[in-house]
Amino acid sequence: MATAAGSGFDTETLRRGIEGQAATLLSLYADDAEIRVVDRNTQPSHPKVLHGRDEISAMLDDVYSRDMTHKLEQCVVQDDRVAFSETCRYPDGVRVLAESMLTLRDGKIVEQTMIQAWDE
């Protein structure tokens, strides 16, 4: 993976960030970025919405403080849109799958919708 032509978005930085460098991942977000999270607890009619880098940073700090692995599985970049799949695994074998769609502005993430599911 490398910088996607025309978008200014560096997919290698995305991979490094997802696979364990929360500060690197945070660097990809614009100051005014927004993330919507849809899962079992925050369903489509009432998603969890994070506004700005401070709220996003708090979420990333929480996620990356857990004993689990993260892997970027697939990533597609087209113009100012990025879609990717991420898999995670806890030491006890519980797995998480997250699918994200991003909107970019000047090579930074300004909007992300993440749909996630995990083993129960």
Architecture overview:
- With 120 residues, the protein is α+β, with helices and mostly antiparallel strands.
- 22% of the residues lie in helices and 46% in strands.
- It has 3 helices and 6 strands.
- It has a 6-stranded mixed β-sheet with strand order 2-1-6-5-4-3, covered by helices on one side.
- Strand 4 (81-89) and strand 5 (95-105) form a beta hairpin.
- The longest helix has 13 residues, at 52-64.
- The radius of gyration is 14 Å and the shape is globular.
What order do the SSEs take from the amino end to the carboxyl end, as H and E? Answer: HHEEHEEEE
Tell me roughly what share of residues is in helical segments. Answer: 10-25%
What structural class should be given to the helix and strand makeup?
alpha+beta
Mean pLDDT over the full residue set: 93
Largest sheet: 6 strands, mixed
Our Rg estimate from Cα atoms comes to 14 Å
Low-confidence stretches: none
- How many H/I helices? 3
What strand line-up does the widest sheet have?
Answer: 2-1-6-5-4-3
